[in-house]
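pinned: reference chain
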Amino acid sequence: MLHIWAYIKTQLHEEVLDRWSFAAEDIRQITSLIENRRAFNVKTMTCAAYALDHRFCGSQLPADEWTDVSDLLVKMSVDEGVDRRSVVNGIMQFRSRSGVVYGRTFNWEAALTDCCIRNPRAWWQSVASTSPLSKVAVILLLMPATSAMVERRNKAYTLQKTKSRNRLTCKREATISTVAYNLKIQRKFACRSDTSPTTSRHALHPSSRHPCPGPNSVLR
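pinned: its C-alpha cells
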C-alpha cells in the first residue's frame, strides 16, 4: 500500500503539476488532499505490516514512521510473551540484515521464491521462524489490507437476521450465512459453466425445464 502512495506522490508531485500548467493554489490543494488521504489510509499498524513484509522491508518508510513502527512491534511482541530486549535486537538485525537469521544469504534468496512472494507469512514461518519477530510478523501479515471482507460479512449477517428472525443465536446465524454464501458461489459458477447452446437457451427462457438457478432456488 505504501508503494502505491509513493507512486501517486511521484505522479502528482508539485513539479509535475506545475508542468501540467496547474495554478499555484490548485497545486497546494492537490498536494494537501493527497497528504490528508494518505494519513487517513495509512496507519501505524499498516506500516508495521509493510515493514515486516520481506518483499519491501519498509523501504518507503521515513525515519519518524520507522520509530512508531518499532514501538508498536515491541509492544505487540511483549504482549505475546516475547522478551523486550530480544525484540529490539531483532528489529535492528532485520533492518541491517545482520545476525544469525537475517545475515544469511540463503534466507534472502528464499524470500524471492514463488512460495514466499505469494505468501509472505511462509518466509516468517520457515527460514525466519526462530526470530523473535516471527510471531508478530505472522499476526500482522494475516490482517486484511482493507475492511471489505468485514463489510461483506456484516451484509451477509444483515440479510439473514431480519426483524422477524431476531432471535437467531450467533452460532446459527453464522451457519446460515455461510450456507447462503456458498450457495451464491455455486449459482455463480453453475451459470458460468453452462456454455452449451441448449443450456444457454433454456437459461434465457423461464418456461424451460432446466433454468439457471434463481436467487431462491437450491442446488442439489
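why pinned: The chain has two domains: 43-142, 148-204. DSSP finds 14 helices and no strands in the chain.
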